[in-house]
């Protein structure tokens, strides 16, 4: 990319390949992610490990790195005695680590996980936290402001389970001057909370900040049908690598699957950002990048 090129420009120029899961690669390196902060703990304790994962994905063909800030929140860090100032520094570090790994040739998407990710109990697959929209805005806005200080190319507002939280994040994005994609956790063609995806994607279209919308952290087989409902925006899709997350045991149950072969169907359904989420590693991203390249070549 050149200094004059924006992420929005790159998105319209052709499909971009996202990276895969951060946590699975950190665990493969031997890091214990059993705490409530999950991979976000390593922003403080092992930042070099995070940079190494970003580099592995770029080497595999990813063009966009999603930062390790999915569960990095002021509330979550405060429970472990980390001050507000330290949390701001760690949020900014999440962007800086990805920027370092990108080396001037890749894009950086600052992860903005849902409120449920901070709870670490699987709530991002249910939604309906019992909070008002105003309370959710107060939760999201400070983190967005801290991330914006490090100037990511785009916000990855991801795994959002319901419309109330989506509305809150979109409001919190106002005035920050950084584009965002908005992706939902889903059940079939509804959000995890049960609202029609047509309504969820319409909400995304209503925000000037949103440049793409779609789904993530769901089975690969569900991606094409969900993407078919996106209208008026480029699609984004990054499914899990198979199985079902069991929040009590904090582990994936079931076999892994291969989603890269489905990439042509995602592109045909309007996807402009394609990648992987949980249980998807560099080897799978390499296969995905090859499929995307072949489809773009015609």
TrEMBL record:
One Pfam match: S-methyl_trans
Free-text remark on how the cofactor is bound: Binds 1 zinc ion per subunit.
One annotated GO molecular function: zinc ion binding
Superkingdom, natural source: Bacteria
UniProt EC number: 2.1.1.10
Keywords of the record: Metal-binding, Methyltransferase, Transferase, Zinc
Identification of the protein by name: Homocysteine S-methyltransferase
């Amino acid at each position: 990319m050149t200094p004059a090129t924006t992420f929005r420009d790159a998105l319209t120029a052709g499909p971009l390949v996202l990276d895969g899961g951060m946590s699975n690669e950190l665990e493969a390196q031997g890091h214990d992610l059993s705490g409530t902060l999950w991979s976000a703990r390593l922003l403080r304790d092992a930042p070099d490990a995070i940079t190494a994962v970003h580099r592995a994905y770029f080497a595999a063909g990813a063009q966009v790195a999603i930062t390790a800030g999915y569960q990095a929140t002021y509330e979550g860090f405060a429970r472990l005695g980390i001050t507000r100032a330290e949390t701001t520094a760690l949020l900014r570090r999440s962007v800086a680590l990805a920027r370092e790994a990108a080396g001037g040739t890749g894009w950086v998407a600052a992860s903005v996980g849902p409120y449920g990710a901070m709870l670490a109990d699987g709530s991002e697959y249910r939604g309906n936290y019992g909070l008002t929209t105003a309370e959710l805005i107060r939760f999201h806005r400070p983190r967005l402001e801290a991330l914006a200080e490090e100037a990511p190319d785009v916000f990855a507002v991801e795994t959002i389970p319901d419309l109330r939280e989506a509305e809150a994040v979109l409001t919190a994005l106002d005035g920050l001057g950084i584009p965002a994609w908005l992706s939902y956790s889903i059940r079939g063609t509804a959000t995890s909370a049960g609202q029609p995806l047509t309504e969820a994607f319409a909400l995304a279209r209503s925000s000037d900040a949103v440049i793409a919308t779609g789904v993530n952290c769901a089975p690969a087989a569900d991606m094409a049908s969900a993407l078919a409902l996106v209208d008026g925006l480029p699609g984004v899709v990054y499914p899990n690598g198979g199985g079902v997350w069991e929040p009590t045991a904090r582990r994936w149950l079931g076999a892994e699957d291969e989603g890269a072969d489905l990439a042509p169907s995602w592109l045909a359904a309007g996807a402009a950002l394609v990648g992987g989420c949980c249980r998807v590693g560099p080897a799978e991203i390499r296969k995905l990048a090859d499929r995307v390249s072949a489809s773009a070549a015609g």
